[in-house]
Design brief:
12 strands, six-stranded mixed β-sheet, 13 helices, six-stranded parallel β-sheet, alpha/beta, 46% helix, elongated
């Protein structure tokens, strides 16, 4: 016979709150009432669920993690780390995969706000979208929210950020030291992070007194085809280049493949740098120089920040992580 907390409360002649107090071993209950409830619990071998516990503790011990693409290796690794760490802290995790549609992101944010969860982590700078910001303000103003590699200037919203601008500026410094002056940046997304990377390229080029023109930055789509298309576009434009920096490893690898098909040697003719230091960087040929954006560090820090917020500890509103450049054979 499957009974719920309401059935137990009815048979024991008490409120569901009283049953919850017994289940959660609260002291503010009489021995007589406690014995009466426990007798019914034992009779039906009742196993309490999370909702019953949450009625008293005001906590479901649950976390929402929202990402746009769980098949992305970077997001998958980060989500795995965070789920494992929250599990150690006694929290269950609800993983929401929104895809690229703004409406899906808003729907998931609204759904999580109705689930009485303890906190939310939004993965990626895509959540800086203005429409999504409005939904966060409307639905999550009472729920501690952490953006992993994103920033929102809003109440009850905190950030763990990678200094993407510094990461790309570091790439320009490295290429300049290797003797390159004709450097191109390929922007393959339209997010807060992508804009920071573009800014870092401009900073690096100006710092090293390198020439910029209208074709020093080109746009493409993220992915292997995007990398191939970027190389084709540069050649079509007649742009002189000896090095290309990409915002994602996978796009950089697409460029390497296209250059190889054109009998252009990497790195002797053209140096290539990616971003994320994913496993792909070590699998391609030549192995890809890439910016390590510290996915393990940002994942652990996101968990620590959100758990501290839930426990109402004093925390920094924003945590900035410095990336590192991992030099391999593509430069």
């Amino acid at each position: 016979m499957n009974l719920n907390i309401y059935d137990i409360a009815k048979e024991a002649g008490v409120s569901i709150t009283t049953v919850s107090r017994v289940l959660n071993h609260k002291e503010n209950i009489s021995t007589k009432t406690k014995d009466k409830v426990e007798k019914v619990l034992k009779k039906y071998n009742y196993i309490p669920n999370a909702i019953a516990r949450g009625l008293v503790t005001k906590s479901m011990k649950s976390i929402g993690i929202v990402t746009t693409n769980i098949t992305d290796m970077h997001h998958a690794k980060s989500a795995y780390i965070m789920e494992r760490e929250f599990n150690k802290l006694g929290y269950s995790v609800m993983l929401c995969n929104t895809g690229t549609r703004t409406e899906e992101s808003i729907n998931y944010i609204k759904m999580l706000s109705e689930r009485n969860i303890d906190g939310i982590i939004l993965m990626g700078s895509v959540f800086n979208n203005k429409d999504i910001q409005s939904s966060i303000s409307a639905y999550l103003n009472h729920i501690p929210t952490v953006l992993q590699n994103g920033f929102l200037d809003m109440e009850n919203t905190y950030s763990v950020l990678v200094d993407d601008s510094y990461g790309i500026s570091m790439c320009v410094d490295h290429l300049f030291e290797k003797g390159h002056s004709d450097i191109v940046y390929v922007k393959d997304m339209d997010t807060y992070s992508a804009k920071q990377k573009k800014e870092g390229f401009l900073v690096g080029m100006n710092k090293n007194d390198l020439k910029l023109d209208d074709n020093s930055i080109i746009n493409t789509q993220c992915g292997l085809d995007g990398g191939r298309n970027a190389v084709k576009e540069l050649i079509k434009l007649g742009k002189k280049f000896t090095a290309i920096i990409f915002g994602e490893d996978v796009t950089a690898i697409g460029a390497i493949k296209e250059l190889r098909d054109l009998d252009i040697n990497v790195p002797n003719d053209v140096a290539i740098i990616g971003f994320n230091n994913s496993i792909l960087a070590e699998c391609c040929y030549p192995e890809l120089t890439s910016v390590d954006n510290k996915v393990e560090t940002t994942s652990f820090l996101s968990v620590k920040l959100l758990s501290d917020l839930i426990e109402k500890k004093n925390v920094a509103s924003n945590i900035l992580v410095r990336p590192e450049l991992v030099i391999r054979k593509s430069t």
